[in-house]
Amino acid sequence: IMVSDNFTTAEFYSVPQAGGTVVELGANSGFQFLVGLAADANYFYVLGEDASAGTLEGQLLTGLFRIARTNLSGTPELIGELPFDSLFPGNSSFANTQGLPVVMDNTGDTPILYFRAVSTALPNAVYAILDPGGTEPLFLGSILRIGTNLDFAMTFDPTRRSIFLFETETDSNGRIVEIQ
Length: 180
Fold this sequence. Notes:
4-stranded antiparallel sheet; 51% strand; globular
């Protein structure tokens, strides 16, 4: 899967693993500044801002949203709210940002969605949402704080049921950390 964001519309695509024709799945005009994406059988999970929700204290609603695969033009549902500067810390220019990881752990009884974001208040944090595709997803908030606002890499290994991330807070040369 992939998503393209042109600041007014997010377009969702399916890209075959073995190569072949890219297929447009649909579009949504509510999202803005998308920086992360994950999916399961029923939803796309998008880290970014929701322009369709209006503003809260003059800022766009920021966080992890889900949108049904069967209704990509529908209203995004916020399931994990973040401070406004969590996706673009210290800068208001989208051009200076990178993608942020969003990973799904569906190896246990209850799926868990992990994502990494930075803000002025939390220089670098890993967040979690229990049962993101359920009727009542539970946003746990920050579950781990490590790294600087320049550390972005993170992945999930389903075989080891571990998160691996890169950080330069405790080692200025950088190191890979495994969290089980």
